[in-house]
Each structure stands twice: as C-alpha cells, then as structure tokens.
Amino acid sequence: MKELKRVFLILLVACLFGQAKGQDTNKGMAIEPEGTLFTQAVQKAKQLNKLVFLDCYTSWCGPCKMMASKVFPQELVGNFMNPKYVCIKINMEQGEGVALAKKFQISAYPTFIIFNGNGQEIGRFLGGCPAEEFIKKVQTASIDNGSAEMDKRFADGDRSEEFLLSYLKTLSSAYKRDQCNEVTEELLKGKEKTFASNKLLAEMFMRNINNPFCPAFIYTAKHPEKLIETIGEVPVRMKLNSVWAGYGRDLVVDENGKKEIDTDKLQKWIKLMEECNVENREEIRLSTLINIAGLQENWNAYIGYINEYWNNPTLDVTDLNLCKWCTPIIRKCKEKGPRHGALGLLQKRLADLESGKRTPQTKQGNMILSGDLSKAMKMIVDELEKE
C-alpha cells in the first residue's frame, strides 16, 4: 500500500511539474498550430484586427531553432506579440512553404515578415537575435513603409527615375531580391550602352541585377570595359560570374514536391553563355548540374556529372570540391554504382597525391585552407568502403 502511495505521489509531482512547465511555455509567443495555412492566419488576423507575424524557417537552420527554443517562449515576447499579432511558423521547404518562399522572395533564414489583415506585407527582417532586440525589430517592421502603395504605382506604370530609385531603396531594405532586379531592369531600360558611365546607375546594376537575360547584363557581359572603368575590374568580373552561376537556382522548379530541371531555361542559359563567350561556362554548367542532381537525390546523374567534370581537360576538380561533392553520397546514397564511382575518384586522387603526381591543395580562390584534405578524403573512403 505504501509503495502504491509513493508511486501515486511521484506521478502527481510529475504531473504538476509538467503542468507548471506547460504554463510557463504558454506565457511565450502563441503560435498557430502546425499545418495552419497562411491564408487562414490572415483571415484570423483580419477578424481579430491584428497583424500577421510569419516565421519563415527551415529544419536545418540553427538560428531558426534558437529563436523557437530560446526567444519565442519568453514571457516578455508573449506579452508583446500575443495582443497584436497572429503568429505562424511555416517551413519554407515543405508543403505550401515552397510556393511561399518563391512568392515572398525568401533567400535567407530565418526571415520574419509582418502582414496587415489584408495579407499585404508591411515589413520584414532577417536573422536570430535576443528577445529585446527581436521585439524592437518587430516594432520597426510593423510600421507600414508604404511599400503596398509603391507596388501599386509600379504596377500602374510609374517609371520615373526618382520613383524607381526610391522604390529600390524600400525593396532593398526588405531584401526583395527578385523585385529589386525587376525594378532595376526598368531603371536601366534603354540605357544599356550608357548606364555604366553613371556612377549611381552602375551601382544599382552591381547591387540588384541577377538575371543574365537582362539586356543591360547581356551588353555588359559582351562589353564590360565601361563598367570596369567606373567600378573596377575585380568587382565587375565577380559580379558577372555571380550572375551566370546564380541563375542555376532558377533552373529548379517544384513539381508536386519533386525538384525538376526547367530544361527550356537550361538550354537558353547555356546558349546565352556561349553567345557571350563566357570563358568558364563549362565549369558553371557542370557545377550547376551537380548541385541540382544532389537536390533531386538523383545519384546516378550526380556522379555522372562529376565524372564529366573530372574528364574535361579544361577543368580541374579541386581536392575541396571532390570532398564536398562526395560527402552527400556517403550520407544519403544507398546505391552501389554512385558509391563505387565516388570511391574510385577519391582513390585515384589519393594515389596521385601520394605519388607526387599532384600537389596537395592549400587554397580555394582567395581562401587559405586550414588542413590537409587527404585526411578528409581517407575518411570518406573509409565510409564508402562500408557496404
């Protein structure tokens, strides 16, 4: 009987502790149940005369996890957020999050966005931060900066330079990468051959253009001299390469949860690089295809593109890239073919290093490597040899 009483007391204490713990958690920011759609949060906010707070996160993002576990549960955050906001968290790599990430131009995590009751964005900010700083950032982002009105002016056809520059300032502060590109293209329209001599317009090009099919970009890719004179050779060369390589993100489309390549865009992109005589176009093309195949977890295509890169006499697979490309195979690939293919490449590279046929890599671009990559390669080999 005493034993039963003791067990009962332990369970009662555990229950009370769990209840108290739950009550503490309830003092934090109230978040809509998982699976709540964005439109449902907007509808609720409109009914309650509140704003919408959207946490755009991913499962792998460290600062996202820190905010969820350390900041959102705090009482001072709950006291500030709950009376004014309907709060919702959406994983940008699952479900409706994939479409929302594209619609809201999310390029970094966590991104926090404030909307009014009509679902119009008011403001946003990025990154993890302590509770007090978080509250200040929410307050600042909740002040309507007139972006909705400016969106309408742009949609209605206002193309005055003064307005476009003001609009770009607003969009830049909201990290709207795609809209910044669109507005800058309009700003540079008809000035493709002359904008580079104007310091302000040249800076707008450098800061915002990410579309290689933009007429101003194509002209600059073919005739970079004027922009180099205004900005400098190194930053201009880096910008051109960044735009060519960065377009690879736009080649991936989501088809019912599956990542597919937009083959039409791919062919047009390759043809344009040929037309503009991009010297490292094969490196950019194959690196992009390797990355896309990895996203798709199509490991046969993945190792096939790595082999194509390896066997191209104009290209060099660095030790760092070889390690980087083979690591996902040991973590995610169960198929023998791709695993054996990666193992063969690593063993050949190690043999070349040991024989002195190849010098160990110590730098990647301007980055000095801190360690001997042959050790990393041997570790990957050990994993691949496990069947």
Folded structure, characterized:
The protein is of the alpha+beta class and 387 residues long. Among the domains are: 107 residues, Glutaredoxin; 134 residues, no CATH class. It is 60% helix and 10% strand. The protein has 19 helices and 8 strands. The chain starts with a helix and ends with a helix. The N terminus is likely disordered.
In N-to-C order, the SSE pattern is HHEHHEHEEHHHHHHHHEEHHHHHEEH
Oligomer: single chain
In which order are the strands of the major sheet placed?
Answer: 2-1-3-4
Tally of DSSP β-strands = 8
Low-confidence stretches: 1-25
- Give the overall pLDDT as a whole number: 89
The whole-angstrom Rg is: 26 Å
Largest sheet: 4 strands, mixed
Question: By helix and strand content, what is the structural category?
Answer: alpha+beta
Percent of residues in helices comes to 55-70%
Termini distance?
Answer: 56 Å
How many helices in DSSP terms?
19
Give the DSSP E fraction (strand runs of 2 or more residues): 5-15%
Which term fits the overall shape? globular
Write the layout of secondary structure elements.
Blueprint: H1 2-26, H2 38-48, E1 51-57, H3 62-71, H4 75-81, E2 85-91, H5 97-103, E3 111-115, E4 121-126, H6 131-141, H7 147-155, H8 161-173, H9 177-188, H10 199-208, H11 215-222, H12 225-231, H13 233-246, E5 252-255, E6 258-261, H14 263-275, H15 281-296, H16 299-311, H17 319-332, H18 336-355, E7 363-364, E8 367-368, H19 373-384
Parallel strand pairs: 1-2
Antiparallel strand pairs: 1-3, 3-4, 5-6, 7-8
Can you give me a brief rundown of this structure?
The protein has 387 residues and is α+β, with helices and mostly antiparallel strands. It has 19 helices and 8 strands. It has a 4-stranded mixed sheet with strand order 2-1-3-4, sandwiched between helices.
